[in-house]
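Section 4.2 – Deliverable D4.2 (structural model, holo form)

The reporting period included a commitment to supply a predicted holo structure for the target in complex with adenosine-5'-diphosphate. Inputs used:
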Amino acid sequence: VDAHLAPYIRENGEVNGIIAVLHDVTDIRRLEKMRSDFVANVSHELKTPITSLKGFAETLLDGAMEDEELCRDFLTIIYKESDRLHRLIKDILYLSSIEHHGIPLSIEKVNVTEAVLSTAQTIKEGAAKKNLKLILPEKKDIWIEGEKDRIQQIVLNLLSNAIAYTPEGGEISVSIKEEDKAVKFIISDTGIGIAQKELPRIFERFYRVEKARSRSSGGTGLGLAIVKHLVDSHNGKIEVKSVEGVGTTFIVSLPKKQNNVI
Ligand code: ADP
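Output (structure tokens):
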């Protein structure tokens, strides 16, 4: 608590007491801590791929370049790491822009099935590469108020994870359920699943259930933190159900109407 004290002086100059203004600064302190944790995490996350890029480039310059096969392997690693670094920076900038400025929704009428189907197009190739069966919703006109780009980003992040964490030959499905006041997006996979004790933490920035595995899948640990923000900005809700070794289902529920439009 921050306290400010001031004498209370009457019009006739008489001191009549002390005014104490007490400020609860718990929230401010918490925000400050979150911010400094974020900077520390970002620095750490950036350091890892940069160290690896530097190491492989140095080894190549020190002579590994003579060996064509080794050279190709190292360059592949350098390419993958720089690609991840690129995505990491993009995600960090995106997350900090939506967190700090709380950019208001630019509300439009969104045809949800169309938004989902066009997002699914962009990940079809990735799913096919892993021989994953992709089950998509039928074309149907369901409209909600929201920002199309953000809704597509939610679906994209959840679908990308479903692909990343589902072994070859699995199945990924997206369905849309229209309710009275909301629309539910249900994204399921038959992947590795998430342990119950990890579930409450997966929406935290940079949190990964198994660091090595998710890093090699190219993840940044920011995908779900971004999803949570985008869902919140629509006054929506997100739920997750998962069984290890069986699969995971994310359910995003967005209201059809946005009342408190700024
Ligand atoms: P990442 O970029 O590492 O995928 P996310 O924020 O998108 O980061 O997800 C956080 C963590 O939650 C992941 O590292 C992974 O461990 C777990 N996770 C997310 N989606 C799934 C899923 N569909 N199946 C299994 N684990 C998942």
